[in-house]
Amino acid sequence: MKVFSSKYTFDYSWEEVSTANWRKYCPWNDKSTHVIAVDTLSREVDPATGILRTERLITCTQSAPAWVVSLLGGSNTSHVYETSYVSPAEKRVTMCSTNLTWANILRVRETVTYQPDLSASSPGYERTEFAQDAKITALCGGWQKIRTKIEDASIERFSENARRGREGFEAVLEMSRRVFGEEKEREKAGVK
Prior knowledge:
Blueprint: E1 2-10, H1 14-20, E2 35-45, E3 52-61, H2 66-72, E4 77-87, E5 92-99, E6 106-116, E7 128-138, H3 144-189
Antiparallel strand pairs: 1-7, 2-3, 3-4, 4-5, 5-6, 6-7
């Protein structure tokens, strides 16, 4: 098993980040062109806690290394199952995802959290902490060399995708702030 961890601080409030999170794979994000579809499978609010729980299926094109495809077969379309929890009371978004494609060969379990960065925030200047952890396990029986090579290649790809994902989400956050700001100005001016 290999582990990937990443932390980052967005210069946006938790409210902005948690709202823009639902637009992460929209046309504003030119870094997520590999995402073909995002299908919401279920969405419900727990009446006791106020936590919004959402299940989604994310369909992507993801080219695996040629040696992996030649060894294991497969296609460039992959599916990821994601469950997210938004707690307005705790100001925390937690997203847990797992791969469905090649799950019998490679298990990827990712957890992402967004929460206010209380150490660097002040009124009018709020920031949000992003934490990402992924556990990647190749399930190739006793073939240690192949298992290690698959895990190493997967960690490298995961790291590249994480960097692009942050860059793309920054663009979504920037566009969301601008669009919502323009809408607020129109509302103030009484324009519909």
